[in-house]
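Bug #2210: token dump truncated for Serine/threonine kinase-like domain-containing protein STKLD1?
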Amino acid sequence: FMQASWDVEDVQAKGIQHLASFVKDKSAFPYLLTCTEVITLAMKIHTDSLDLQVEGCTLLLEILSQALEQGVMMALDERVASCLLHTVRKHSENEEILSMLCTILMMVSASEAAAENLRKVGIIPDLLSILRRFLHNDKICFSCCAVLWSLAVSENNADQAVLASALPVTSAVLQKHLQNGVVAESACSALWALALQGCLTDSDYEPTAALLLDALRMNPERAVLVKNGCLALASLVRLSETAALAILLDSKGSGLELIKDEFHLHSDEPGVAEALCLLMNEMVQYDEVMLDMRSQKMEKLLSEIKLQFPFS
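Reproduced locally. Full output below:
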């Protein structure tokens, strides 16, 4: 019905409404999964209809939420990725629609194939532009940083130059939302991915390390943030001694004391302990830093970790 009349807005709107009526029916879910291309194409063709955009986004979110609940990965093809990008660009000023679209992008980017297709259609500059414009919107910042992480963390990344421009805006997100644990966690993950990809220059190491330490201090109870923050710091330290010295000499207090506190707070979390060990392992590569770590009795902490996780 929808495919027979692409150009008739009313047909597309009624079609989406009718499909939405099946959302609550569990037996309809496998069929709804096959409708994502029809929905996104209808949104692309009738991009000026705000009602259709909202209804289409709402339906896609329902389908994707069910897919995630059931552990089904939505591997969207390049055509669907292209339709979503077109809609993002057309509504780059509309905060409500963009917020929904960014959530959709975050949900689909969990699939490696979908992330690859989003990368192919060139969505990274658009994400950065959205972040700059809506830095105040915590929901958009959370979603966009999560998508950035998914796109940047891939090993076969050909977007080095594009990703390099992501550092200032990702840092700005973390700075703005330091006290919002959910957003800060997402931004720390994105910074970790950017560090892994070598997207920092010499002048970036110290301020980025200080910002990550601030995130750890502000959200000590969030185990995932602590883990990802420490992994990001470890990546920075691997690249430069400047980052290691920034941890030792941070103006807001010793980074080593912070590391100790974080372990004692999360002593039952193997992921946190592993990230802390990785960070310390990178730090001892530098003689001056290692001497400082000895004077701070870091071997005592290492012994505690060894006792806590003897079989890891």
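Output looks complete on our side. The first helix runs from residue 9 to 20. Marking as cannot-reproduce; reopen if the truncation happens again.
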